[in-house]
Amino acid sequence: MRFRILLGLAGLALFSAALPSAAATKSAHADIVNAQGTKIGTAKIAAAGKGVKIVVTISQLTPGEHGIHIHTVGKCEGPAFTSAGGHFNPTSAHHGTHNTQDPHPHLGDLMNLTVDQNGKAKATFLAKGVTLGDGSESLFHDGGTSLVIHAKADDLMSDPSGNSGDRIACGVIER
After folding, report:
1. Is 82 contained in some domain?
2. Catalytic residue among 66, 95, 104, 154
3. Cα gap 125→111, rounded to integer Å
């Protein structure tokens, strides 16, 4: 009897220890920095249906539309942010929602970020097919991922990155 109680308590302790990590996979965040390494914004990420919802709040950007994508490496070394790798594309799709070639789009493709005349933006994106769990579609795959903002608007169809220009801001996606 005593052995069963101890065994039960040990099992309960293991179960309790597993709970915080499961809760941690329900949300993520990124601090977004510019080429000089100054924090200019944040992204809050949460599981949403068959994807993730990304809420970006940013300042100090040039007004207009900017391409924004999830990139395949969780590194943001300025000033060019090439350390972030290419677009997150575990399904080997073509770039952009308007691309005529199937399959499309990349899992890391998002719509454009519109920055106001004061250099600020707040936008919500849905990244379909992306998860915060395990597996190749996870933002936490081996090597992690990052969120990258480009200098120009994404044309939403040209491979590999929609002619969106230089990478001007980046944030590592973290639990």
Report:
1. yes
2. 95
3. 7
- The Cβ of residue 31 has, within 10 Å, a number of other Cβ atoms equal to 15
* Overall domain count for the chain: 1
Residue 98 confidence (pLDDT) above 50: yes
Active site residue 98: no
Specify whether 109 is catalytic: yes
Report the predicted TM-score, pTM, of the whole model to 2 decimal places.
Answer: 0.85
Residue 29 known to be catalytic: no
Residue 157: half-sphere exposure toward Cβ, Cα within 13 Å: 5
For 141, the domain range is: 26-172
How high is the pLDDT of residue 168?
A: 98
105 lies in some domain: yes
Active-site hit among 66, 94, 104, 150: 150
* Structural domain includes residue 104: yes
Using the predicted structure, report yes or no on whether residue 20 has a pLDDT greater than 80.
no
Q: Considering the chain, what percentage of its residues have pLDDT values greater than 70?
A: 86
Q: What CATH number should be reported for the domain holding residue 142?
A: 2.60.40.200
Question: Which of the following is catalytic: 66, 94, 104, 167?
Answer: 167
